[in-house]
Amino acid sequence: MARMHTNLSQLQPCCADHMHVPPVHPLAAPTPEEAAREARRIEQGALSAMIDAHVHLFPQPLFAALHRWFDAHAWNIAFRGSSEETIAHLHQNGVARMVALVFAHKEGASRTLNRYLGQLATAEPSIIGVGTVLPGEPDARGIVKEAIAVHGLRGIKLHCHVQRVAIDDPRTVEVLAACQELGVPAVVHAGREPSSAAYGVDCHAICNVKRTRRVLQQLPNLRLVVPHIGADEYGDYLRLCDEFPHLYLDTAMACADYFPDALDWTQLEQHADRVLYGTDFPIVPYEMGRERTVLARRIVDDVKFAQIAGGNAARLWGV
Ligand SMILES: [Zn+2]
User: Fold this and answer.
1) How far is the CA of 53 from the centre of ligand 1 (A)?
2) Which of the residues 49, 174, 242, 317 has an alpha carbon 20 to 30 A from that of 139?
3) pTM for the structure as a whole
4) Over 60: is that where the pLDDT of 6 sits?
5) For residue 301, how far is its CA from the centre of ligand 1 (angstroms)?
6) CB contact set of 204 (below 8 Å; sequence gap of 6+)
């Protein structure tokens, strides 16, 4: 199938039964300028000490469930190793530190996931562990506090599609207010793509940049990371960074030249102080280094590249 130059909302109507998943195409050959930039950055070691701000580590049964869900409803996950194998693969591929995320899809799962990730992060200092809670579950605030104080996790991850809750829902705001109070960042998949009816919720109805703005107005000191540059409202989310100094966006799957091109790279580079390199590995249909290669070729300025590659993440996560 030829590469499609339509935008994601055309590709993935919210009423579709399945995500419309593009095939993995080889990256286009770099222009001479892009090839020179990439070579220079390899030479300088700029691609071998990166912070991947969006990695997933799960207990094996949960990874297996994720693989089944993705096989049925989304893309073919290329790397299917355990958490330990995932960490080793990232280290072998130029990732010095990683922000590891879990998310709970049902009530009662968060404490187990947070304990699991806390133990991994204690054993492996290159992991910045980010726990989870299901908004609205009993003792949600207590679960957040325990994740940070007991399990040593550094923030909280929520996923509006998987958890079927809007970012401005009072149950979500309760969790985010707890993060603000504790001074820890929240990572919230609040963008409307990639959507699928298989989530059992209308992703476009519960996610949009206006809802995110409302929450940021309500919680002015909350440090918030929105993954995937807020796909597919890329431009609106980048502009939102101008309004809110504590808002960050990660590049996961949005800068891998996989989904049809809708991102304005000039606008992205203008907001480089808020952009975090992230991959979503291992829940991706291509090899781990794809996103890094695209960024190394397309971000023009070396200082801005360094910010994206790890400088911003180091500041945000205090490492
Ligand atoms: Zn993810």
Assistant:
1) 10
2) 317
3) 0.93
4) no
5) 27
6) 9, 14, 192, 195
